Structures are given as C-alpha cells and as structure tokens.
Amino acid sequence: MRTATLRVGLVSLLCACAQTTTYLGTFDTPAPIAVLDAANGPFTEPIGYAADSNGGRIRVLALARGRYLAEDPYASFDRGANLPTGASRLLAGVAGYAPDPAHAWVWAIDRGAQELLKVPHIVGRDPDGSPAEAVATVTDIALPAGGDVRIEGLRLDPDRATSEVWTLTWDGQAWQVQGTLAGPQPALFPDVGWAAVRGGLSLVVRGTAAVGDTITITVDRGVEVFPLDGRPLDLSMAPDQSTLLVLVQDEDGVATAHTVDPATGAIGTALALPAGASPSRISWSADSATLYLTDKALPVIHEVDVASSQVTDHALPWPALDVAPLDDDVGRLLYVAPLGVAGGNDVWLLDPATDTFVDVNLATAAVDPMHFLSPVRGLAALPEPYDLPSQDEDNPPRSRSVAVSLQEGMVVWMEERTGCLVPDRLGPRTQLRSATTVIADYEPDFPIDIPGTAYLSQTEDVTRHVNVNPCAGIAQPQTWELRFDGVVGAWQAIGTLSGTQDAWIYEDERYLSDEAEISLTMRTGTTPSQDGWGIQFNVLAGVLRGDGDNEGDRVREVDLDQPARPVVFYASPYGTRQPWTVVAAEASDLVVRIDPTTGAVDAVWD
Q: Which residues pair with 347 in a beta bridge?
C-alpha cells in the first residue's frame, strides 16, 4: 500500500465551517443540562448546555430568551452551531466553564469511551468584538501515493463535524469509510457525492486506486480528551467555577469522587470517603464552599468542605438518590430523596446540625416526609427568594424552594423550612359543586333537604364544609366517601387513595383523618342517621404543578415524559430578578423552561 501525505493546515477554502444553519432536528434523549452564568464569561445572559445522551451533540440555549443561542443577535431564528463531540459518544454530564470574557468551553463525560472531554465553545473575539465560536477544520489529508486519487468538494457540517480521523479504504469497487467516532459509514463510490451519517463530512473522491489504498482525513475541532479510570457517573461545576468534580465507577461497581482543575483538566486524587462508599450524585452549596454527595451503597450523605477536603457523613436510614441544600441565617436543611427501594416517592428534610429529620406533617405523631404519587427523579435548590403564587397579587409571599422532578411528568416545588409544596393560588381545598344550593362542596345520598338529617358544619368559607390540610402536598387529589355504620353508630371515611381510615367519625365531634389530610365535624340531626347513608366530596391538592398543562384544562400542551434532574437559573428579563426551572424530558426529546411562580411551561426547545 502506497501513501503520500498532503499537509493542508487550515483548509478554510475547502470547508464551509463558519456558516450557521437553521434548526432541523430534535434532541436525541436529552438528559444532562448545565447552566453557565453570565458573571465572568463572554455572554450577557445565562447560557444552557443541553447534551444528547445519544449522538454526542451539545446544544446551546439562550435560557432567558427561551431560544437557541444565535450567532447573530438580530437573527435569532438562525442559531449558532451545536457543539459536536462525536456520533458514538454517550454523554452523561456537562458543565460550563468561562474563565474570562473571551473564552467558554464545556466539560463533558462520555460513559461509552470512559473519557472526560473539554469541548471548546467560544475561542476568542471576532474583529467586531462578538464572541468567536470554535469551528472544525481539516488539518491533514493523506492520499495514496503515485496515483491520481483526489478529493473535491469537501465540506464540514458545523453541527456534526468534530475532532476525529476518517479512514477511506478502496476494496476494488468502493471506498469503505470509517470515522473514529462516527463509526462505519455507507460505502463511497468514485465520482459520486457522499455524506456521512451523523458525521458532518461530505465530499467527492475521483481518480483510480489500487485495492487496499487508503485515504485519511484528520478533522480537528479542538476537543481535548482525558481518559478516566472507569465509567463516569456524574459531573458538576461549583457555582463559582473554582472546582470541577467527577464521579467515576470502577469495574467492581465502586465509585470515587475526583476533583478536576477546570482550567487544565488535571484530575486530582480521590476524595477520602469512608470504606465502602460509592458516591452517585453531586450537589453544591450556593457559595461553592461545600459539596454534597449521595451514596448508592452507604446510608449517608457525604458533606465535603471544599477548602480542606474534610468529609462529614450524615447518617440516613437508607442510601439516597439525590440531595439539595438550602442555607440561611437560621441554619441549613438538606432535602433528601431516598433510592427507589427505600421510598422513591418521598423527599425528607434533614437537619445536618443534628442529623435528625424535620417533620413535614405536624398534625400526626410520626415524623413524616413529603410523599408523592410518583417516583422522584431529581432535586434542585432555588437559593434566592422569589414571589410565590397568591390571591393577593400586590403582596405575594416570598420564599425559596427546592424543585422536584417526578416520574409522572411534572415538576413541583417544596417550600423552604416547612417542606410543604408550593401551592397554587387557591391552595388545598374541596371542589365546589354548586354556588346556588345549600350543598356547596359535598353530596349526600340521603335527602339532606329534609330538616333533621345529619349534615357537615360549614367552615370559615361558608361554601365549604371540609377543612383540607393547608400544607400543600399532604392532601392528595381524591374522592372521599363518608359512610354511616349503624352497628358502630359512627361514620367511616374512605379515600380513593388514602383507603379506609382507622378513626371513626362520631357526630358532633371534630374528626381528623389518619394522615391529617382532612378534618370536619358531622352534626347530629333530629332524625337518627341510618345505616348505609353516605356523603361524598372531592379534594383538590392545590399544588403548583409544572406539567405542560398551561391552560388548566387537564390537557397537556407539552408532554414531559421521563423528566430528568432539574436545573435552575436566575435572570432579569423584565427588570426583576427571578428564577426558572429547566428540565429535560428524556422520552419526549425536548427541554423546557418552567416559571416557578406560575407553573407554566413558557419555553420549549425541541
């Protein structure tokens, strides 16, 4: 096999690399998302990096504007190129890094190749002062020696072309093509235009070759690769961008946590965690001084002081899926989601100063978590106060919260300190049936319009007769039935979700359901209650939900199937700084922005 090397350096004349393209596709199982704040980087707004789990592309989002980041700010429909890392990569985590106003890149982990990647995004400034995006270029072409084989019309797609080597081998009938990251490709026939599948390369090969002759094309986009000693699980950047942390799992399934210098990629020694530890997710305090690690093997939360690397373990009854911290002048609370086998539908509030749980439902004797009807997928703290929903729009309450993504396809928010869910404008309540009759929120199967039968006392709201626990999330949306038992001489409460209650309802005594979801008073009539008499009413949870049903008609305008772990960013597009929650819907192949003050999905990237 004869080869000769043609050094081409920067082949800008051959590559249409600087052009932008309109968006033509969708995400391919998006999961990891990172937020790059505008504090030190080249952007004047928060930027999102959303990676495809399949296909290796990282898409750049203008989070505050709800659009893809445009190369030309006056043509927002014509976005800048994506950040391709290679079609065969399985990206499982991203982190943005911008050390100065002229540079930004993305750190990413590839579970397939077990590598840490440094992917350039902004590599300087254009002559007009605008950020200059990294582009792919052909740096080397090696053609067969002694023949007339040549390449024409070579093009690199800025959305697909990345750092890799393409090899073309002549088998006597066609060129067999392989990319180091794109993998095997369709055969290339002489004198016929050819384009790679998801590889970003197109060209025409002309001339006569001998069997076994090869062509190699080296493409460089500046992607740097750092091998990892195992399968990466998670990657996270400190809010102040001082420290990058990566979790790596060895062949025995044991994970370790390594600090990484975000400027150089130098991987430090593993954090000194206790024997048997296997960290699985990373969270940071808002001031970047402390990081928290969940552990899939040990029933603890690892708290790491970043300055000293000192580790403090907070004991739990079970291993944890995720953790989100909220700090204030009063102290700290850790919002902890157990692994599925230990209670995957719950979020507990842990006081790390005493390693004790904070009771969410004070009306019961037990210490309770917030319980959901769906498995928890992830948590993210909203560390700055914001306006919560309220009927009093002039004086809404202000608080902080923790976003919770749920398997059933939604995001909800837990209030700080109490652990109650953020309510909608009306809060937990019964469902009104009619405003024109005596019966407003319940319905009996006996003639209540005849004087002398039992009835429910009115609440402070004269149209309602049942008090619903004001801590949103305690009362689930369900139908309750009160049924009189003539033998016991009392009423029994049965919820479609809560089941038959242990406590009986005795007339003229205040009743509280077993989990304190509802309370009521059944009044005695002059006519004794009869066996089998029943009363029904519906309870509305009154929880603020970000589920894609923006119109409140129980029809989702946006499907959030398999929502991933949420992320949070703050911006001031209307003059007032406010938060948003961003979540990838893995099975829907889209990313959404949700307003935590309304629950509305107000931006969609698909």
A: 370
Helices (H) and strands (E) counted in the chain, each on its own, are 1, 49
- Residues 133, 400: Cα–Cα separation, whole Å: 36
User: Which one, of 220, 226, 182, 224, lies nearest residue 89 by Cα?
Assistant: 182
User: In Å, what is the CA distance from 401 to each residue of 72, 367, 480, 567, 587?
Assistant: 36, 20, 30, 13, 26
Q: Residue 345: what are its φ and ψ, rounded to 5°?
A: -100, 10
Q: Which among 348, 366, 343 is positioned nearest to 358, based on CA atoms?
A: 348
The answer to whether 289 and 324 have CB atoms below 8 angstroms apart is no
Six-digit token pair at 537?
């009413």
| Rg of the Cα atoms in the chain | 30
Give the whole-angstrom CA distance, residue 336 versus residue 125: 43
Kindly give the residue spans of alpha helices, DSSP state H, lying in 200-251.
Answer: none
- The span from the CA of 563 to the CA of 393, in Å, is 30
Do 369 and 346 touch, CB atoms closer than 8 A? yes
CA-nearest of 446, 442, 439 to 533 is 446
**Ordered DSSP codes for 473-536:** TSS-SEEEEEEEETTTTEEEEEETTTEEEEEEE-TTSEEE-TTSSEEEEEEPPSSPP-TT-EEE
Q: How far is CA 74 from CA 70, 71, 78, 123, 361, in A?
A: 8, 9, 9, 21, 52
Ordered DSSP codes for 443-459:
EESS-TTSTTS-EEPP-
What is this structure's pTM? 0.90
Report which of 376, 543, 365 is spatially closest to residue 468, judged by C-alpha positions.
Answer: 543
- Please name the helix (run of DSSP H) or strand (run of DSSP E) that holds residue 168, with its range, or none: strand 164-170
Range of lowest pLDDT (151-160, 246-255, 302-311, 440-449)? 440-449
Closest CA to 203 of 227, 230, 185: 185
* Cβ-Cβ contacts under 8 Å for 302 (sequence gap 6 or more): 271, 273, 277, 279, 292, 293, 294, 295, 311, 312, 313
Convert the pLDDT of each residue in 327-366 to its tens digit: 877 779 999 999 987 788 999 999 999 999 999 999 999 9
Measured CA to CA, the distance from residue 132 to residue 118 in angstroms comes to 17
Length of the chain: 606
pLDDT digits (tens, 9 = 90+) for 405-451: 999 999 999 999 899 999 999 999 999 876 555 567 999 999 876 77
3-state SS of 314-345?
EECCCCEEEEEEEECCCCEEEEEEECHHHHCC
User: If you write DSSP's letter for every residue of 241-292 in order, what string do you get?
Assistant: SS-EEEEEE-TTS-EEEEEE-TTT--EEEEP-PPTT--EEEEEE-TTSSEEE
Tens of pLDDT, residues 278-329: 999 999 999 999 999 999 999 999 999 999 999 999 999 999 999 999 987 7
The pair of three-digit structure tokens given for residue 547, joined into one six-digit string: 């589920």
